[in-house]
Structures are given as C-alpha cells and as structure tokens.
Amino acid sequence: MRISRSHLWAALFATLLPVVSAGAFAQAVTFATPREALKQGMSAYQGGYYEIAIPALEFAAAKQEFMAEYYLARIYSDNSGAHTDHAKAYKLFYRLANEYADADPDDDPRAPYVGKSLTALAGYVRRGIKEIGLKPDPAQAVIYLQNASTTFADEDAQFELAKLKLSGEGIDEDEATARHWLADLSERGHAGAQAFLADLLWRGKYMKPDKPAALALIAIAVENAPVYDRLWIEDIYQNIYCGSGEGIRKQATGIVAAWGNRFGRKPEAREAAGIGLLAAEPQRSCQNGEIVSPIKSGASEPAVATPVVRTPPVGTPAQGFTYGNTAPTLRDVGTEARDPDNR
Fold first, then answer.
1. With pLDDT > 90 as the criterion, what percentage of the chain qualifies?
2. CB proximity list for 142: less than 8 A, separation 6 or greater
3. Nearest-angstrom CA–CA distance, 69 and 24
4. With a threshold of 0.90, does the pTM exceed it?
5. In the predicted model, what is the mean pLDDT of residues 208-230?
6. How far is CA 324 from CA 180, 196, 313, 317, in A?
7. Residue 266 falls in which region: left (phi positive, over 0), alpha (psi -120 to 50) or beta
8. What pLDDT shows up at residue 7?
9. Confidence band, pLDDT 50/70/90 cuts, at residue 79
10. What are the two backbone dihedrals, phi and then psi, of residue 129, each rounded to the nearest 5 degrees?
11. CA atoms in the 13 A half-sphere facing the CB of 207
C-alpha cells in the first residue's frame, strides 16, 4: 500500500509533539535551504501542526521566502489558534502588501496572496490594534479593500466592501448596490457572501424575507466553506435549520437541487489558500434535541423553480469595481417590497 506524504508527516508529528515544543523543534531541526524549510513548514501547516510549522516558516521568512511570510501571518491572525499575535500578523501583511504592490495579477503567482494581504491589512486598519498604537481608520481600510478587489480581484475584499456598503462605514451607504454585490459573489460560489446573504434573507434585513431560499443558500455555503470560515457559517446554518419547519426544508431541498452545481465550488477551489481539511466538527443539534442534518437534493423530491427576477438592474457598482455579466438568479431574491424600517 502506498503511503502518502501527508500520512508520513502525520506520523512524524504524532511522535514529535508529545516531547518537542516549538522552541525545541527550532533548535533540533536545521534546514539545508530556505525553500526546504518552506516545504516542511507548509506540510506542517496543512496538517494543522502549527507548533512545528512556525519554526520552519520563520527560518524561510527570514530569508525572504514570500509564502513563508504569508502563512506565518495567517497563523498569527488566527483567533482560534494558540499562536495568535495580531501585531506580528499586521506587520507581515503590511510588508507583503507594500513590498509586492506591483505584482502583476496576470503572470505573478504571488499576486493573489498580495490581494489577500491587503484584505487582511484592511481588517486591522478598520479595527485598529491597541498594542502597537494603530488607530481605527475606516476610510483607509476601504482604500486597501478597493485595491485588493480591483487590482487583485480578491473576492474576500469584494465581500467586505459589500458589507460596508450596507453600513456606510468609510464608504457611501447603498443597500441596492450591496445586495447586488453579495448576490453576484454568491453566484460565483463565495461561501462567506452566501452565508451572509442567507442570514439577511432569513431575518428579512435590508430585503424581503425568503426562508426557503435562505435555508438553501446557507446549505450551499456550508458545502463551499473553507476551513477557516466553517465555524461562523455553520452557526448560521444551525440557526436557520432549527428555525425551519418541514415545509420550508422540503422547499429548500428543491432549491438546492437547482442551485447546488451552479453556485457551488469544488474542494480544490475552496482550499486554494493551502489550508488542509481538518477533523470534522462535533455533530450539532437544535434546542429540542433534533440533529442538524445537511440539506441534500434527492431525486424523489419535487424540484422548486428558481425565484423569478423582478427588480431592474441596480446600475454599475460604485467605487470603480465591477463584476461580469453573470445571469442574475440570486441578486434580486428578497428585493421585492419590504418594510423600510426593517434594517
């Protein structure tokens, strides 16, 4: 039987972790080249063994290995991990965004990560970091997001801009444009946008409620979600699923059958950032003890037609960032007449 490299790493880490701390590992292991350190660090990272990944990535980052710096920043910015250090993450993202600002999106493989660094940087600038005296600056955060979304086509930046359009934080408030952007991203398979839009549809916030569409969309988002976004997306799914009766669930099943392949993403696309699939989360349940189950399209279930588009186009999105001509099937769901005070 052939043993994969990932399984070999897992066996090695299982042996090392009980007796070797990150600092001890850094002293015990030497690397022939920065590239070899990067390879070993990435293998550990993808396996979720950050204690071993950090020393290897630090060695490579000290020699200016771009991807080592990027993934170190990812580790330090992870609030769910044991190595969170937002000051370090900010400095790394800032350096990458500025040092490689001229990366050509057409032929430089580093360009997508520069865009993601700009998006992460925007998040820090928007919130501020007390430890290093960084004050919140929503307007500057928007500039970073616009650069990431236009120059580097970063979908996470586009998602953040859409949310800011709803609140008017650092950017002109425009509900119609925000809905358009969220729906367009959802059609292209962005799990975060799908989950956020599903929550709005469920609650009837900024739009008319559509509970079957909300449940269908969040079900698709769960399937699309990258590891680092799964927790909050599954939280929304649990809330919507537990609040839905059998009638809504049956309708949602038909909608998933119509939308699943069109608005889904293959696992390799979801994990393009290099984060490996981690262990499954514990099974969730509703307050009444009912198990939270996935919504699947069944051959025996009657198909439900895709909601009809009724609203005229909202026009070209502001701030110089436009999307393609994706056929609208989600962007106008929930935009029919609603209570103007239901925001």
1. 64
2. 122, 161, 164, 170, 171, 319
3. 21
4. no
5. 93
6. 12, 21, 13, 11
7. beta
8. 46
9. confident
10. -135, 110
11. 29
